[in-house]
């Protein structure tokens, strides 16, 4: 059976968490998850985007789970959805030195590449979303927490907006053979506007303003005077 997913957006940040994000926002989220959301006690895996602001949020808001032995997996698929400097990660060797408590062997060696499925294009965002959902759907755990970014969560995973340090809960919907894994939000968080009630309600699909224009295929040059 496919797992239940708790998607979490990182706290307020400017590359790294601000004082508000690192302190108040993460503290509120941690206390809420630990004391007011029984499902959080069943989390068996934490999946994290390998960027500083998501790593910080994970430690501050989910550290109580890590202390219980819940494993953390870093996955490049869950990084942010643009090639801007603020949304591009740092090389793995640099991050390994900075965050030695995490296992970096699970991160795609190409990270922080911005091409292929990591390209900020409709095709790239769509393919990365499929890869991320399939990764989650095929995991053996029953409940998984994912710490990612507002842009990628909305454009590629669940078509929902997330305020800083807010969360939403999803199950995988019924699908026919060969269909892309589809996520269905719990009424608990959908009607409230996120688990903390901070996020905008409604659905927000991937649109042209979310990615760079596709590069046109080069035209074939035909000589007027072939030899």
Automatic annotation (TrEMBL):
Q: InterPro entries attached here?
A: His_Pase_superF_clade-1, His_PPase_superfam, PGM_Phosphatase
Spell out the protein name for this chain. Phosphoglycerate mutase-like protein
Spell out the residue ranges making up region: Disordered.
192-227
- PANTHER family found in the cross-reference section: BROAD-SPECIFICITY PHOSPHATASE YOR283W-RELATED, PHOSPHOGLYCERATE MUTASE
Q: Which organism is it from?
A: Cadophora malorum
Bias regions of kind Basic and acidic residues — which residues? 192-203
Mind listing the GO molecular function terms for this protein?
phosphatase activity
UniProt GO cellular component terms? cytoplasm
The record's annotation in CDD domains points to:
HP_PGM_like
